[in-house]
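Quick entry between incubations.
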Amino acid sequence: MWFGPNLQRSYKYMMFASKMPSLRIDQSDLKCKNGCDYFGNPQWQGYCSKCHREQMQRQRKAEKASSATLPKPEQKKQEKGLKLTSHSSFSKFEEKRLRQSETLKKANLLKFSVFKKSNTEDHDHSSEKRPPEFKIPALVNEGMKSEFRARFPQLPAQVDRDARVFVHSFIMDVIKCANVMTVDELSERVQRQYQRFMKHMDTSSHFANVDSDTKELLMDFVEKHAMTYLHELPSVVFSPSGTDDERLDRAMSERIQQLSWVGERHLECKLDRSNAECRTLLYKAISELLGMDSAPGPGGKLARVRRACRHVLRLCSAAPASADDLLPALIFTVLKANPPRLVSNINFVTRFCNAQRLMTGEGGYYFTNLCCAVSFIENLTAESLNMDKKEFDCYMAMPASIGGSSWAAALSLCGAAREAGEQRGAARRLLQHAADLQAAAQQLASNALSFEEQIAKKVQDVLAKTPLEIKPRRELPRLGKLQEISTAPLIDLGTSTDREEPQPQPVPTSQPQPAHTVPVEPKELNVTLDPPEDEPKLNILGFEVIDRQSPSKSPQNLDQTWDLKRTNSLELLTPSPLGFTPFDSRSIDELMTPDDFGNDQLPPGLSNINYDIDLSDFSGDNSIAEDAPKSEPKDPFSPDALKKTQTFDPFAPQTSRGYDAAIDSFDEFSFVDQKHKETDPFEVVHRGQDPFSPVEWNVDLGKDQFRSQSPAKQSTSILDDNDSPTTGCLLPSPLQPQSSGRPN
Amino acid sequence: MKVIEAKIVVLGSQGVGKTSLVVRYIGKMFSKHISPTIGASFFTCNINLENARVKLQVWDTAGQERFRSMAPMYYRNANAALLVFDITSVNSFQAIKGWVKELQSNVPEAMVLSVVGNKSDLQQLRAVQAAEAAHFAESIGAHYVETSALHEPGIDQVFLSTASALLQLSPSLPSLRSYDSEAEDRVPAGMPTEEDATHTGKVELPAWSIDSIAHGQVQKSCC
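Done. Structure below.
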C-alpha cells in the first residue's frame, strides 16, 4: 500500500521523538531502562514493551488490591439484587441480553485473537521490530470512497484522499497504541489526532475552498469511519481491556433493574400515561436508547441519543419544555429502557468522540443530559427521590417484578419487543441470504453442467479432427528402426565390452535390459506397432541414409559396414572428432531425438548442429576434439593394455563381428558399443535407451551408476575419470581425451 | 468577519424562569437575524455585533436541587454563564451566590458571568433589591440585568452584553473557538488547543512530517 513507508517513518519518529533536542543519541539511550537488550520507548516510560507491560500489570494489581479493601456499596447491592431478582421474568430478559452481549464479545475476541496474538508476540520478541503490518480491510477504504462521493460530491478528490490517509494512519496508530497505553492516554491521543486533522483542514491548500460547516461534516465523516472500524475490534476502544467498563455495565444494568419500581411520580415528571401519543413517544425514545448499543462509532451513538432526547422533550407536555422537565423524563426513560452496555457506550463516546463535538452542539448537550441521568441513577437515594428512607429500602428489597405497575411492565416489554423486532429482521435477512445462496448454488451447478457439456463437445470436436493426424505419424518409425538397427550392430560392440570388462558389464546389461526394452516398446507402440516387424527393412533404410552422410566425414574406414556405422557417428562427432566416442554420442543423440528429429536427422546439416551443442558443454574437450581422433587410439591404450587391444579390435570389424554372436543379450548396450568398442566401458549404451523412456532412464541411471562405478574401479581407468556414468553418457567423446590426458 | 463560538450555560434554581428567558429571547429574535435550532433546552443563535459574529450555544440546565450535583457536567467548557434568580425569592438569590462560588472554584478559565434578576414585572413582590444584586454582580465582575420573560425588557441586553464581553475576552480565552469567516484566507486564529496538538501531532503524523526523523544511530554514523 502506498502509505506503508510513511507509517514506518512515523513509527520511528514516534519512538525517538522525545530525544529530538539532542542531535546525537547514543544507542544505549534507546535501550530499555530495565537493562534488557531490547529498545525502549518514551511512550513506555523508557522501557521496552515487555518490561513496560509488566510494570503496568504490577501497578494495576496494586490498584486492584487497594480498591478491593474498600467495600463498594454497588457491589453489595448487586448481590442482593441478584438474589432478589433471579426469579423475575424481567430479570431473565436482562440476563439473556447480557449473556448475548457477552458471547458476542467473546466471539469477536476469538476472531480478533489472531491479530492480537501476533501483535503481542512481536512485542515480546523485540520492541524495535514492528508488529506485522495489520491490513485494514479494503472495505473501509471502499466504504469511505463511495460515501464520500455520495456526501461531498462537490469536494475535490484530494480531500477524499486526505481523509482516507488520515483514517488509515489513525486506525493504525490506535491499534498500535491500544496494547501499550491506558485508556485515558489512548483517548488523549485520539483527541489529538482529531485536532490534528482539524488543523490540517485549516492549513492545507486542499481545503481552502471548504467552508467551516463542511469541515465539521468532514470531521464527523472521518471520525465515523475510523471509529466504526475500531469499534468492531473488541477491547480496543469499546470497553477496553484495562477498564472496568464491562463490570460497570453489569452493575448498572442490575441497578436499573432494581429501580424498576421508580415511576414518573417519584421523579416528578409530568407524563400522561393515558395519552397514546405520549406512549408512542416514550416507546420511540426507549427504542432509540436501546439502539445506541448497536450503533457503530461515537457519532452514530450520539445521533441515537439526540433522537431519543428529542422524543423525550416532546414527551414533556409542558409548553416550554425546559431542562427542568427534560432531565427527569430522560431518567425515567433510561430506567425503563435499561440500555445494554450503557456504561461502556457512554465511556466510549466520552473517550473517543471528537471532543469538539461533544463539548458543543445539540448532540453534546443531550449526551451530557444522558450522563447526568446515568450518574443520577447510580447515586440515587431516598432523598433524591424525595421519599422516606424506609419506604425506599422497602422498595429496593422488593423483587423487581412486584414493584412495577402494569404500565412499567409494558414499558419493560418494550425493549423485548424491540429486540424481537430486530431479530425478526435479522432472521428475514438471513433467510433472504440463504435463498440467495441457494439460487447461486443452483446457478453454479447448472453452469458446471453446461460447462461440462461444452467441454465434452469440444473434446469430441477435437477428437474428430485429430485422429487424422495420428495416422501420418507412421513416418516416425524410422527412429525406432534406427535404434533397433543400432542395437543390431551393438552385438559387435558387446563383444568388445566383454573383452574389456567381462565381469562388470554383463550384470548391468542383463538387468537394465528389461527396463530399457519396456520403455522403447511403448513409444514404438505410440508411433506405430509396425517397427518391430519392419526392423530389417527399416534398418537397411536407416543405414542407407547414414551412408550418404557418413562417407564424407569418416576418416578411417576399415570395413564398409563399419564405415557406414562410423559415418553416422562421425557426423555426430564432427564437433568433437574423437573417432569412436563420437559414434557413441551419435547413437545417443539419435535415441534422444524424438521421432521428428529422426526424420530430421536424414539431412546432414541439422544433425551436425545438434551434436555441436551437446558437446559444447565441455568446452575444453571441444577444442581438443579435432586432435582427439588422432589421440584416441593412444588413449585407450594408455589406461590399460586390455583396452588398447580392445580399441584396436573394434577397428577391425571382423573381430567385433565374431563377438556379435556371443553377446545377444547386450544388444541394447552394444547398440552404442558396437560403433565404438572403446566406449563400451562408459556404458554409453544406457543413454541411448534412456531418451526414449525418460522415467525409466533415471531409474536405469541409478542402477547404472552403482554398477558402472564398481566395474570402473575394478577394471578400467576410463570409467574412473568419468565418475558418474551419466556424465560419461552425455559426453562420450570428450571423456576419452580427458582420460587420455591424465594417463599420459 | 470574525466569528466566535461560545457555550453559554444557564444556571439557577428551579422555577426562576431560566427556560422562559431563553425561549422568549429565541422566539423574539427568530423573526430577525437569529436562526435558532429548534429545541426547548438547547439553542444556538448568532448575534451580529458591529464587526463580528458570535455564535452562542445556550445550554439550559435542570434547576432542581437533586440534580445539583450534576451541574459540573453542564458548565464544563462553558465560556459564559447566565446566573438567573427570581427577584421575588431570596432563596434563589442565595443560590446564585452558591453557583458563583462553585464556578469560581471549578472552572479554571475566565468566564463571562451575567447576573439576571428575572420576573421584574412582579415589582410588588420584590424580595431582592436591585441595588443589592447589582452590588453583588459588581463584586464578581458580572453585568447585572433585570428582565422579565413576560414583558421581555432587558432580555436582548443580557445576550448582547454577554456576546460583546465574549468578544472582548476572546483573545485571552483558550477554549473559545474563534476564526475568520472569510473562507479564502482563513488563518487558524484562536484554538491554542490545536496549536498544542500540532506539535505532538506532527510527531505522529507520517504524511506531513516525513523529514523530521530523529534516529540516533543514523546521526552517529554520519560523524
